[in-house]
UniProtKB/TrEMBL annotation:
InterPro entries: Kazal_dom, Kazal_dom_sf
Pfam families: Kazal_1
Protein name per UniProt: Serine peptidase inhibitor Kazal type 13
SMART domains in the record: KAZAL
Amino acid sequence: MAAFPQVTIFFLVSSIGILTAFAAMKPHDFSRWPPPPCKLYYPTDPLYQLDEPECPNVTAYVCALDGHTYQNECFFCVARWEFGPHIKFDKYGKCG
């Protein structure tokens, strides 16, 4: 029975090592991801305040073609809704 914890620890450590090796072999290509689904983020309230978007406080950067980095896709979509379709999606992640 004393060998069971050692075998479990060995299995967990080796699994993490294998997963790390496979993750390093195939990097994510964020440029091939689809643009944000902005229809999900358009305000539905007719009394919507432009200075107070109801976006979650989550950091998942979105880069626009104008070089501006938005905190997440909600902020990107609200800016596009407020300022016009000239704000175009470039990639996920920080700009520059």
